[in-house]
Automatic annotation (TrEMBL), chain A:
Its cofactor is pyridoxal 5'-phosphate. This is Probable glycine dehydrogenase (decarboxylating) subunit 2. It holds the Pfam family Aminotran_5. The lineage of its organism: Bacteria, Bacillati, Bacillota, Bacilli, Bacillales. Residues 353-455 form the Glycine dehydrogenase C-terminal domain. The glycine cleavage system is composed of four proteins: P, T, L and H. In this organism, the P 'protein' is a heterodimer of two subunits. The glycine cleavage system catalyzes the degradation of glycine. The P protein binds the alpha-amino group of glycine through its pyridoxal phosphate cofactor; CO(2) is released and the remaining methylamine moiety is then transferred to the lipoamide cofactor of the H protein. GO terms for molecular function: glycine binding; glycine dehydrogenase (decarboxylating) activity; pyridoxal phosphate binding. Keywords: Oxidoreductase, Pyridoxal phosphate. It comes from Oceanobacillus limi.
TrEMBL record, chain B:
Keywords: Oxidoreductase. InterPro entries: GcvPA, GDC-P_N, GDC_P, PyrdxlP-dep_Trfase, PyrdxlP-dep_Trfase_major, PyrdxlP-dep_Trfase_small. The glycine cleavage system catalyzes the degradation of glycine. The P protein binds the alpha-amino group of glycine through its pyridoxal phosphate cofactor; CO(2) is released and the remaining methylamine moiety is then transferred to the lipoamide cofactor of the H protein. GO terms for molecular function: glycine dehydrogenase (decarboxylating) activity. This is Probable glycine dehydrogenase (decarboxylating) subunit 1. NCBIfam families: PRK00451.1. The glycine cleavage system is composed of four proteins: P, T, L and H. In this organism, the P 'protein' is a heterodimer of two subunits. It comes from the Bacteria. CDD domains: GDC-P. It comes from Oceanobacillus limi.
């Protein structure tokens, strides 16, 4: 593709062109301007584009050709679970009886939709081992915040107002401490030990009477199962705190272990990761929360329940933390997740985790030949390499990532988690074939050779993409956030 | 059982286990302590094949009364507008919907540019200098705006008009518990904000005033009067929640010196889908640029000087700033922002005003028909495409009877406003025909007796 500017839709605009086809004005016209003070009638039309319908399609098709998705190629982006997005999910989400129903219709007219939601929340309870699930949160980060608000409400209901701290591991995703702050807590860090797991001794130091909760993913962000999870739960619970499960990494353990059985009190899930609701270029997601029986009363309201054989949204929940999102959550994404769960069933979901873990270990054992592997034990669904060996040659992890673009791969997550130098976090997912994994492994090994023999080739990558490396510094120093004529 | 999303063959598995140096995949799970090992099969419905599942879900969908087979006068924040065919064709391109957040700009220029264009369109509509790449929905976007105003002014008191969407107000209250804000609701008079009550509550501790424009009742609030009241208090911020379609006709909040303008772009190309996913927008001033929650796309150039786009000002965000981030938002509504961008491109500069006025004309026709039929209306103040009428029976009962005639009636205002017993909020969009409106008024008249 030509290496040049791609016009903005505004630059394609020409006075007098239209792409709209609006209904007729079939009622007698009244003079609207009589009703409003002049200062309330818009003087200048917003500068939206004037383009024909074909130009709209050409523009956005052109943009799509400048974008990379899971259907385009391998996307081993650690912690993001970039698995295949099934097409049946997209089809059913577009059925009129699902896509064109209004949240304020009487519940008797939307029993089909509510049945689906009820079945989904029941399935998610079973998969996570939690007592009750709410589908209201819009995404993972909102699920985290919702969970922490419930924990806060629980402590306060017990007259305990001094639990101000939320403990997060040093390897945690940034949303964990951010959610803690937004929920009104102070985030404190617990260290990892030399095995990449939470340091129990440090945890004992950090917990106390001010501990509201410990937030964990398990497997953790290094892709390692926290083997001492039972002991950790005991430590936190004995101190009066609660255990929060970040479901970002659930893809590794479905049918093998459940957060509820590990002692977690609150769980959130990312349905757009494990349960295939597509990522959409950054959303929409869906972030249901599950709770133990002890915390059920604090769930956001309304909750969906069965009453006299009818499904109803129940608002009479005096201890609820309230509403976290208008209406009933991201229904369209929940529907896709439901469709996926119905496609896979118990047997399929367990195989998902089995192959996610098999694929990750297979890649890890081949890539450790050329890349440092700080934590050599079996991994779960993902693993973290360090590019420190290549760094000595002057080739940074960023360069390796950019070189992968030349070979048609989306790079792994880089520079995360923070506790691994020059981190490369690889998550293949279960939907990739052995051939795909082998192809990627070969390229990663050959990039390592390039780093030794021709470092500039890697340092100056990418060479084959439609644009080269971007000047991000100027973008941040002199921000241009919209088009101006 | 075969699973079509799982490509591994028995031979592949064998070969891979050999490479890893283990006998079975179970060994790879041996780090899970036996105490927490799950030792039975998950109790889920049996897996369904594609044909069977499609049938099952179609049957489930058919149990719902939908907005396509009935004529709907239900709005209250979620609207049945025309969606151009191009929208679904664009968002069905899997390069868009199967992509992650565009953290690798070299292979994500399509998404980044689409977001940059979305930001521009929202900026144009609202009359604000900048807009972000989207929020979950209008309600949570408003709650983020409220929390930002408190952080910015270092004040705790927030004045929220009761004419703001009841569910948005509920979300504001939930979000306010984190930073311990004091949410004070301002009364309404016949569906518009009581400015005397607002003035009496406004003081030097007020972080922000929240107004919806047009408001929940469809009425157009006096933003200039509110602005004047706010300006008497230094620093107090003016937050306006706006239906962006209405801004095709109404003067944008930016021209009334709003500090933050939020809302939902569901009206542009996004189906109701039982309340979500929709798409929040967040627009503000340059002054607050580095405090904006969520992702921002900026224009820059590559090494060869070619124009391109990147995620920018990321020092605000959770993945960099962690506990000091301005918000915890991570995933947003990118695909729905794209849908709205396509719809806005399709509607275009002149189509927007035409679409807005079509809504207004049809709503006025309906309102006049109700008046002619002897119904009482809540207010005769200026409005957009919604208005409230008074019934003699409960709205729930009336709506059940309307549905028998293929009509989805309006919103029951008594749910959120006990003082408005038997009041129905009626929404009339551009796709309702004269015949549908006439039939609606007639049926309601018959039920009304």
């Amino acid at each position: 593709m030509a290496n040049k500017d791609f016009p903005l839709i505004f630059e394609r605009s020409k006075e007098g062109r239209t792409s709209y086809s609006l209904p007729e004005l079939d009622v007698p016209e009244v003079n609207l301007d009589d009703e409003f003070e002049a200062s309330y009638v818009r003087k200048t039309a917003p500068n939206l584009p004037e383009v024909s319908e074909l130009e709209v399609m050409r523009h956005y098709t052109g943009l799509s050709n400048r974008n990379f998705g899971v259907d385009s190629g391998f996307y081993p982006l650690g912690s993001c679970t970039m698995k295949y997005n099934p097409k049946i999910n997209e089809d059913v989400a577009r059925l009129d009886g699902f896509s064109h129903i209004h949240p304020y219709q009487d519940s008797s007219t939307v029993q089909g939709a509510m049945e689906m939601l009820y079945d989904l929340q029941t399935s998610l309870s079973e998969i996570t081992g939690m007592h009750e699930v709410s589908l209201q949160p819009a995404a993972g980060a909102q699920g985290e915040w919702t969970g922490l608000m419930m924990i806060r409400a629980y402590h306060e209901a017990n007259g305990d107002f001094n639990r101000t701290k939320v403990i997060v591991p040093d390897s945690a995703h940034g949303t964990n401490p951010a959610s803690a702050t937004v929920a009104g807590f102070e985030a404190v860090t617990v260290k990892s030990n030399e095995k990449g797991l939470v340091d129990l001794e440090d945890l004992k130091q950090v917990v106390g009477e001010d501990t509201a909760a410990l937030m964990l993913t398990n497997p953790n962000t290094l892709g390692l199962f926290e083997t001492e999870i039972v002991e950790m739960a005991e430590i936190v619970h004995e101190a009066g705190g609660k255990l929060y499960y970040d479901g970002a990494n659930l893809n590794a353990i479905m049918g093998y272990a459940r957060p509820g059985d590990m002692g977690f009190d609150v769980v959130h899930l990312n349905l757009h990761k494990t349960f295939t609701g597509p990522h959409g270029g950054g959303g929409p997601g869906s972030g249901p929360v599950g709770v133990s029986e002890e915390l059920e009363a604090f769930l956001p309201k309304p909750i969906l329940m069965k009453k006299d054989d009818k499904l109803v949204f129940e608002y009479d929940r005096p201890q609820s933390i309230g509403r976290v999102k208008p209406y009933y959550g991201n229904f369209g994404i929940n529907l896709r997740a439901y469709t996926y769960i119905r496609t896979m069933g118990a047997e399929g979901l367990k195989k998902v985790s089995e192959y996610a873990v098999l694929n990750a270990n297979y890649m890890m054992r081949q890539l450790e030949k050329e890349y440092d592997l700080p934590y050599p034990q079996h991994c779960k669904h993902e693993f973290v390499l360090s590019g420190r060996r290549q760094k000595k040659l002057g080739v940074r992890t960023l360069d390796i990532a950019k070189r992968l673009l030349d070979y048609g791969y989306h790079p792994p997550t880089i520079y995360f988690p923070l506790n691994v130098e020059e981190a490369l976090m690889v998550e293949p997912t279960e939907t990739e074939s052995k051939e795909t994994l082998d192809g990627f492994i070969d390229i990663m090994l050959s990039i390592s050779e390039e780093a030794k023999n021709d470092p500039e080739l890697v340092q100056e990558a990418p060479h084959n993409t439609i644009v080269k490396r971007m000047d991000e510094t100027t973008a941040a120093r002199k921000p241009i956030l919209r088009y101006e004529d | 059982m075969e699973f079509r999303y799982l490509p591994m063959t028995d031979q592949d598995k064998k070969d891979m286990l050999t490479t890893i140096g283990v006998e079975s995949t179970d060994e790879l799970f041996s780090d899970i302590p036996s105490k927490v090992r799950f030792n039975r099969e998950l109790n889920l419905k049996r897996p369904a094949n594609e044909a069977q599942l499609k049938k099952e879900l179609t049957d489930m969908a058919n149990k719902n009364a939908n907005l396509k087979n009935n004529s709907s006068f239900l709005g209250a924040g979620v609207y049945d507008h025309f969606i151009p065919s191009v929208v679904d064709h664009v968002i069905s391109r899997s390069e868009f919907y199967t992509a992650y957040t565009p953290y690798q700009p070299e292979i994500s220029q399509g998404e980044l540019q689409a977001i940059f264009e979305f930001q521009t369109m929202i900026s144009e509509l609202t009359g604000m200098p900048i807009a972000n790449s989207s929020m979950y929905d209008g309600g949570t976007s408003l709650a983020e705006a409220v929390n930002l105003s408190a952080a910015q002014t270092k004040r705790k008191k927030i004045l929220v008009s009761k004419t703001v969407h009841p569910e948005s107000r509920a979300v504001i209250k939930s979000y306010a518990k984190g930073p311990n804000l004091d949410i004070v609701e301002i009364d309404h008079k016949n569906g518009v904000t009581d400015l005397e009550h607002l003035e009496s509550q406004l003081d030097e501790n007020t972080a922000s005033v929240v107004i919806q424009y047009p408001n929940f009742f469809g009425q157009v609030e006096k933003l200039d009067r509110v602005r004047d009241l706010i300006s008497a208090q230094k620093k107090t911020m003016f937050i306006v929640s706006s239906n962006p379609l209405a801004l095709g006709y109404l003067t944008p909040p930016g021209e009334f010196d709003a500090d933050i303008v939020v809302g939902d772009t569901q009206v542009f190309g996004i189906p109701a889908q039982f309340g979500g996913p929709h798409c929040g927008y967040f627009a503000t001033t340059k002054k607050l640029m580095r405090k904006v929650p969520g992702r921002l796309v900026g224009q820059t150039t590559d090494e060869d000087g070619v124009r391109g786009f990147v995620l920018t000002l990321q020092a605000r965000e959770q993945h960099i700033r962690r506990d000091k981030a301005t918000s915890n938002i991570c995933s947003n509504q990118a695909l729905n922002a794209l849908a709205s961008s396509v719809a806005m491109s399709s509607i275009g500069k002149h189509g927007l005003k035409k679409m807005a006025t079509l809504n207004m004309q049809k709503a006025r026709y309906a309102k006049q028909k109700f008046l002619d039929a002897g119904f009482e209306v809540l207010s005769d103040a200026p409005f957009f495409n919604e208005f409230a009428i008074k019934l003699t029976k409960s709205v729930k009962e009336v709506n059940a009877r309307l549905l028998e005639k293929g009509i989805i009636g309006g919103y029951d205002l008594s749910d959120a406003y006990p003082e408005l017993n038997h009041h129905m909020l009626v929404a009339v969009t551009e796709i309702r025909t004269k015949e549908e409106i006439d039939a609606f008024v007639k049926e309601l008249g018959d039920i009304h007796g």
